[in-house]
Design brief:
Elements: H1 3-9, H2 12-40, H3 63-66, E1 71-72, E2 78-81, E3 87-88, H4 91-108, H5 111-127, E4 129-130, E5 136-137, H6 157-174, H7 177-187, E6 200-203, E7 206-209, H8 221-238, H9 241-257, H10 287-304, H11 307-321, H12 323-353
Helix pairs in contact: 4-5, 4-6, 5-6, 6-7, 6-8, 8-9, 8-10, 10-11
Length: about 350
Amino acid sequence: MNLKQKINNITSPIKAIIILLGLVSISLTFYIHSEWDYHYKHYDVNLSNIASQNLEHWYVDLSRKYNSNRLFDKNGIPLVDYANAGIHYNPVTISQYALGVYEHYLSKRQEIDRQIFLTQANWLVENIKETTKGFGVWYYHFSPGGISDLEIPWVSAMAQGEAISVLLRAYLMTSDTAYLKTAEKALDSFNYTLEEGGVRSIDKGLIYYEEVPSKQAFHILNGFIASLFGIYDFYRVTGSVTALKLFNDGVTTLISKLDHYDTGFWSKYCFYGFRDLTHIIEPLASMHYHNVHIGQLKVMYAITGKNIFREYSDKWNQYQHKFTCKLMHFFYSKLFFRAQRLLYKMNYLYFSSSP
């Protein structure tokens, strides 16, 4: 019996299943590869003059942020529309936009880019708020989706660190000490715990700088590392012993816990310092954030010379090149989304039925 006869003998339902599986496989392959192609070259890293006192390029190339379609206020400051949460200023968005503009300024040296950059830096100076303990923060006045225990207003280590990077470049550009003084106030927030209004959390004796100050202790990786870049910038410009200690404390934690962010086929977006019914399954990084992690670890290796950062950067980069890893990421992410919705529903039903 030849192949054609064998195919003809297969029943229609089985044929339909085979065709369906084939179409699903083709669609899934196309989806994974198209997502990969988009995110693989999303951001480059800048490793030149990484220890120089003269700050130039930021560590991750954010030049594409300058060209992003976005909403602005009348003064040219980016706004973000969070739908149900409304339109708000986001200090991270403003700082990343500023760093993107700065990249364009370095390449073209156009006055318009210089002025746009300084407009963002001036907003940071004008909108920092001094706490009762004397350090400075940029507050968030809305709650991001999926995090129920944030007390508004709240502070982000990622915002603090990236704003410091902007302010120090503005200081070097203009010699205006207002930028340096503002950066110094922001740096001090890393000395204070979340309970004190700062951005530091301590988990099993290790120090984290939290992107989101949730009681769940999310330990978000990209935000943690981005905050370290700002701290390191402060050390580069000023030689501050305090900044160097803050940086080294963060490096110690990363070295100790980097394996917690590795699943064997992908990186995690965060890991939970505290678990409850709705925080059991930790989310994987999206393809975008996985690539960000790889770039950030390349930078950390360049700064510190610690081989563990190069090893994990190389390992996670290899995951991106393996179809099986990308396939596992796809199915795990779908499972996480459904499981998380179920856990939230179970948690809601439990507490709503409690006396």
